[in-house]
Design goal:
Strand content: 25-35%
Oligomer: single chain
Number of helices: 3
Helix content: 25-40%
Number of strands: 5
Strand order of the largest sheet: 1-2-3-4-5
Structural class: alpha+beta
Distance between the termini: 23 Å
Radius of gyration: 14 Å
Length: 115
């Protein structure tokens, strides 16, 4: 399994728990934008401690092949996430499938990244 992919315009990366500051920054910048579409978040969600713990769980789940969240970065700036794409609820066997979810930074909509 690859921890990163590259497209013509984006880098997709599995982030490590040590990069929780980038994750927290993404959610803080997009809080009001994402709120109508996300589950209700309590104040702990918007803390480094929570995001570090969640990143640890997601990182471990990636290597267990049970859950994959790739963070999206433009090629010009690999320190500022512009979105995520997540694969979960894997079905194996003859009917191979999974759920796909995504979210995009408010300032990066309508650029064709999710096309």
């Amino acid at each position: 399994m690859n921890v990163s992919y590259t497209t013509d315009r984006l880098n997709l990366m599995i982030l490590q728990p040590s990069q929780a500051d980038m994750i927290l920054d993404f959610y803080e910048r997009n809080r009001s934008f994402l709120e109508p579409y996300e589950p209700l978040r309590n104040s702990k969600f918007y803390t480094y401690k929570y995001q570090h713990s969640n990143a640890t769980c997601e990182y471990n789940a990636f290597f267990k092949r049970s859950y994959m969240r790739y963070w999206l970065f433009t090629k010009e700036n690999t320190s500022l996430p512009v979105g995520t794409v997540c694969f979960s609820d894997f079905k194996r066997g003859a009917f191979r499938s999974c759920m796909v979810g995504y979210k995009l930074d408010k300032d990066n909509c309508h650029k064709g990244y999710m096309h």
